[in-house]
Amino acid sequence: MSAAQRGNSRQSILDRLLSKDITVPPLPQIDHDALVRFDDPLAKFGEMLALVGGDLHIVDSSVQVMSILGELAVFRDAARIASMVPEVVPGNFDAAAIDDPHDLAALDWTILRGEFAVAENGAIWVDGNSMPHRVLIFIAQYLAIVVSRNEILNNMHEAYARVGHPKPGFGIFVSGPSKTADIEQSLVLGAHGCRKLQVFVMA
Predict the structure, then answer these.
(1) What is the CA radius of gyration of the chain?
(2) Cα 120–127–36 angle (5° rounding)?
(3) CA nearest neighbour of 178 among 140, 152, 147
(4) Any idea which of 4-18, 67-81, 104-118 has the lowest mean pLDDT?
């Protein structure tokens, strides 16, 4: 079967599916009064972030951010830093000038802006429109995310309400560095993504 024939067959199946009128049960009603809320969402976020392997830094200025990063040998020795938040952390590598994402394979750090964070699980929402290549969030050896102190939500219900119905594109919740426990059920951090996540919560 040729590629054109496969494409036509696939489209025919999709068209038939779209033509079906399917009745689905209504979504459950959410009792918002029963949702988890925290007296100190920022403290809970820090607790959960640490639990999943991330480091939280509460800062007031970009000077503090650079001071903290400067204490890390892996930042001081980094050759390629792609920053999507240059007013906080200046980068030395223009990821937007790269056409082929494979050319980002040697990236040391990616610095991103988080739209908001979630206290109950230490997750941070990153909008794909804030970076030229979505692979930036996965391919760098180390990852830092800057998020506003005023953007700490209690739970994922609030988070999804905030995301709403996004436009077509890419967005992701990030919670800690990459992890795997496939081998002998032993948890390994940084196995197939960033080795460490630094989160900076700024005023």
Answers:
(1) 20
(2) 15
(3) 140
(4) 4-18
Contact call for residues 166 and 149 (beta carbons, < 8 A): no
Position 3 scores a pLDDT of 61
User: Other C-beta atoms within 10 Å of 194: how many?
Assistant: 23
Nearest to 65 by CA among 41, 83, 50: 83
DSSP string, 96-159: GG-SSGGGGTT--EEEEE-SEEETTTTEEEEEGGGSS-TTHHHHSSEEEEEEETT-EESSHHHH
Polymer length in residues for the chain: 203
pLDDT tens-digit readout, 149-173: 999 999 999 999 999 876 778 999 9
What's the pTM?
Answer: 0.83
Burial class (CB in 10 A: 0-12, 13-18, 19+), 112: buried
